[in-house]
Amino acid sequence: MDDLPEALLAEIIKRVIRTSDLKSLSLVSKRLYTAEAEVRDSIQVGCGLYPVTLALASLCSRFPNLCKVEFNYSGWTPNQGMQMDNEGLRVFSSCCPLLTHLSLSFCSNIDDSGLGFLACFKKLMSVRLNTLSEITSSGILSVAVGCKSLSAFHLIGCNEVGNGDWLEYLGSVGSLEELVVKYCKKIGQFDILVFGPGWMKLQKFEFQNVGLPRKYNPYDPSYIAHKQYRYDFCCESLKDLTLARMTAYPEIGLRCLVSKCKSLENLCLHLVFGLNDNDMITLANKCSNLRSISLILTPEFCEGYVSRTALTDGSLKALALRCPVLQSFELKFWGCAPDYPEIGFTQEGLMTLIQSCPIRHLALSGANIFDDDGMKALSTAQSLESLELERCIAITDTGMRLLACSPCLMNLTLRLCDGVTDDGVSEVVHVLRLESLVIEKCAQVSLEAVQGAAKSVHYRLDCPGYIEWVERCVYASAWIAQGI
User: Fold this and answer.
1) Cβ–Cβ < 8 Å for 367, 343
2) How far apart are the C-alpha atoms of 316 and 369, rounded to whole Å?
3) Is the CB of residue 239 less than 8 Å from the CB of residue 266?
4) Are 283 and 258 in contact (CB under 8 A)?
5) How far is CA 404 from CA 93, 198, 390, 401, in A?
6) 3-state class of 286 per DSSP?
7) pLDDT digits (tens, 9 = 90+) for 226-266
8) Whole-number Å distance between alpha carbons of 479 and 302
9) CB under 8 Å to 467, separation ≥6 — which residues?
10) Closest Cα to residue 484, out of 62, 128, 98, 92?
């Protein structure tokens, strides 16, 4: 080890990923202790750093080349010592000059004055502020003005932050490539429109509300018919788009993004009320590079008094015809009764998409339309490598036997699929050499049936049920609590 050149030793240390392994490595010798400190460029800090100011100075002295730092106090209690506060952030800003990425989560002792110190990080490119209860729009504006190299900004669960001037300022500067705004109660979809020219360079955008929105038509107070000045912007660089828990309405709101994007590769539309087939057809015609789609749908009143999910096979056929590189498709339904035709898609439409596009990853949840005949069609999908089925009550052992003929399937996940038994799982695992098998809360599948069935096996009978799934995916309350 002593004969290894410094460059080679540094390269070896870079390949060690786990923090515990890095700590063990640094205890082997003084040379490794010094080399590991020089190489380390990222660190996570949580409860137990006390006293904060002295500990931060010592930390930066120990690791002089830190570029990415995360402070996370999720689950903090007073008996765990003091949190990072404004003074700690001031000290940190003076002794970590190479910082490019900073994440602050659940830091309840940091307010607007503390955010002002972020301007001292001259190389800061990415800021993530998660559940900072004391900050307001003024503090965010100081970050926008002071951090000249900012290219990524995430604002999550900061309920005292409104629109203010910070969004308009960031848009006028036009340097952001990534903007995420989630679970901020005082920021609505119409507030985001002041981003203006900033859309031109933006490559990733995510906006999520808290809980379900009202299904009534939203109102943009600045909207003037035939004078859509707030909607006259270009977002042709946008590659990743996520919209969740909001009401869309023709011509106004963030719905306009769906028809403006031309470079889109990844799309998530989770409980976006008001979208229809025309939106998806327009999207498919413009976005031939679309690689990933994730949809969560629930019944709405369509075509008068018909209650069903708004999208139909027309959307699936457009995607099948116009999206030749689509590789991942996730389709989740909420509130669709199994004995009533509330799902606008048919199994035939879904199979058309899967057989027309090179789908590698398919996830279905609450898909009452999907049964053993669908499993037969999946068995001929030439590109399918990963399959996730959740709350698909029409699937039985017959479908599992058919799935065993799948030519490329390597990863299989079954959740809350009570029609599948040990026999069905055994049919699949005896024929396919699975890389991973996940079985969660399938009432008729035992632990004995899955042991040794794949290189990686995960089995649970106590996984979150339907109510927990609704809290997580529909209302997002679990995500907010965990700071995700």
Assistant:
1) yes
2) 14
3) yes
4) yes
5) 57, 49, 18, 5
6) helix
7) 666 677 888 989 999 999 999 887 777 888 888 888 999 99
8) 30
9) none
10) 128
The rounded distance, in Å, linking the Cα atoms of 42 and 102 is 10
The pair of structure tokens assigned to 7 is: 């460059």
Round to whole Å and give the CA distance between 306 and 335. 15
Residues of the chain with pLDDT under 70: 1-2, 9-10, 21, 25, 27, 33, 214-217, 225-229, 302-305, 339-341, 463-484
- Which two three-digit tokens encode residue 2? 């002593």
Residue 276 structure tokens: 């229809």
Continuous segment of H or E residues that includes residue 415: strand 411-415
Tell me if 364 sits within 8 A of 391, measured CB to CB: no
The beta-strand segments (E) located in 166-304 are 178-182, 204-208, 240-247, 266-273, 292-297, 300-302
Q: Distance between CA 377 and CA 402 in Å, rounded?
A: 9
Residues constituting the chain: 484
Question: How far apart, in whole angstroms, are the C-alpha atoms of residue 272 and residue 253?
Answer: 12
- What is the three-class DSSP state of 429? helix
pTM for the full predicted model: 0.89
Q: How far apart are CA 74 and CA 81, in angstroms?
A: 13
What is the spatial distance between Cα 66 and Cα 391, in angstroms, rounded to a whole number?
45
Q: Which tokens hold the place of 126?
A: 């990415």
In sequence order, what are the beta bridge partners of 268? 242, 294
Asked whether 210 and 478 are in contact (CB, 8 A), the reply is: no
Query: Of 271, 17, 434, which Cα lies nearest the Cα of 25?
Result: 17
Cα gap 425→429, rounded to integer Å: 6
Our measurement of the distance from residue 48's CA atom to the centroid of its chain's CA atoms, rounded to an integer in Å, reads 29
The label of the residue with tokens 């990853």 reads 361
